[in-house]
Amino acid sequence: MKQYCYYPSPIGELLLTGSSGILQEIYFPCEAENITISTSMTENKTSFSPVRKQLSEYFAGERKTFSIPFSPAGTPFQGRVWMELQKIPYGHTASYGEIAERIGNPKACRAIGMANGKNPIPIIIPCHRIIGKDGSMTGFGGGLKIKKFLLDLEQRG
What we know:
Oligomer: single chain
Radius of gyration: 15 Å
């Protein structure tokens, strides 16, 4: 059975969803407004306690990596991209081209961008660490203001 809970964060209230204690999605406030909670879903803060604790530590600047069970739904290609995103160290950034090179498909920059945009577990899978080749801020599901907040948070840590 799918469960959900809301998590009050410095960037607004996040919606967490998953089942059996495994995180499947994080929605930013601007996205959560458009999500309809199914009547088959149950609210359960307890099952998300480890996620909430680690997010609190992250936002306090005390956690640089996450160690919670999660299972993002996506294609095999998206999964490869999301695995590579997790290798970008806290406080660092990479470009779409760098990720394309790392997965052995240097011409896949546009596809990397699409996979990055479909990441269902932002922050935990740090899609906010992807920037343009020229160092510019690029699109982000939570909006550029939140992306800047997350990058600034990590620069201070």
